[in-house]
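The following record pairs a protein chain with its ligand, S-adenosylmethionine.
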Amino acid sequence: MHKNESPKNPRKQPAIGAGDRGLSLKTEKSNIMEQKELQKIVNPIYTTAKGTVMTLATSGDQNAIALCPHLEIEEIMGKGPKAPESFKKIYVIGQEVRFKIGNNAVLHRKEPVVVDLPSGYSPRGFVMADAGRQYYGLDLPAVIDLMKPAVRKTMSDAQRKQVRYAAADATGYQSVRDALGRNQREICVITEGLLGYLSESELISMCRAVNRLLSEFGGCWITADRGMLGIYSAIYGALINPDTAAFDARIKSKGVGMADVRFYQNSLFTGSGDDAAAFLKAQGFAVKAESVSRYIHGLRTVDTATEKRIADACAAMDIWTLTVAAPAEDIEDADPPFAVDADTRDDVLLIRVQGRLDTLTAPELLKTYLAHSEMTGKTDIDLSGVTYVSSAGERVLRMIGKSYRQAEPLTQPTD
Ligand SMILES: C[S@@+](CC[C@H](N)C(=O)[O-])C[C@H]1O[C@@H](n2cnc3c(N)ncnc32)[C@H](O)[C@@H]1O
């Protein structure tokens, strides 16, 4: 790859940024981005998680209200869709409905340990701690780095004893296993707001990871990510207008969140609900489907009669409880540890990568590239030692490739 840059014009130097999220990344060695900024670039759904806690705060959730001032929410303010008031009202009610469905479904179970994978900035830890559960909030490092101090400032001592927040890649067994530390007890894994964003290989990798965790600890995996598709639309139809076309178009064009990755492109979403269940069975899970309606209770944003209308409107939507039917093989153990090193010879930068190039490790590759790219005219990346590339890894490889093909500042790829 050869650079296409004009050294005489600093404004023409390649830079990598996250487009409309206002991040900018220059390639000068002295200006290498902090780890946190690098993590945000490889994790484009970082901001959707902030949107969730902000919307929950708008719904009157006191824990979300307490958390928000500590979460640098300003960086996403004004970036969401400019929606009519009726749409905004439904986003707020819908967000509370989703949050409560997840909480109520988990609390209905007996497992003493709750693993929120991924936790984002959700106030679920407060709810679980108050209910006497041990709660693990697991997410990518940039999220955990912000969430840990926020929780320290906002939780009571008693709540803090019940919760742990740790960085983990949901698609890597070892990473999640390490985050669970000395846990020996049964776990209830809850996944809200992630499965639709995963590529096919990431989804399979996450299924394998969760299967192995459940095989080891016992317990279950709860998710309504597939079953709750269309929940905002159903609520809009029940409460505002049965003709949901305009609302659906808005959600489709913009997404309720602010993610800039493609979603719903994996086996859980591309076919029917039955196809998705068959896929999970093939991953070694027994699938129990229940209507989400039974978990719609205790809403604060609406009165009891409206709560009942929402539950009726969502009656056909499923929440799944997965348990292990066939344990997954330990194939991940074969991965060598991640390593990246760089060498410059005859104006050529040679970067060698080994192990999993995933959401946790991709920032290291980008950092290494940025630290050396100014000194050379050509870069070769040796990926022969790489055993797995996630979409975050792919994103970084494309960013590096793109910096050679265009002189303008790079924006984050959207496909
Ligand atoms: C839409 S948010 C949902 C968070 C939370 N469950 C909620 O409902 O608020 C998606 C979250 O997934 C996290 N995430 C993305 N890829 C991940 C991965 N490979 N491993 C762990 N977390 C990941 C993001 O950082 C983000 O916090």
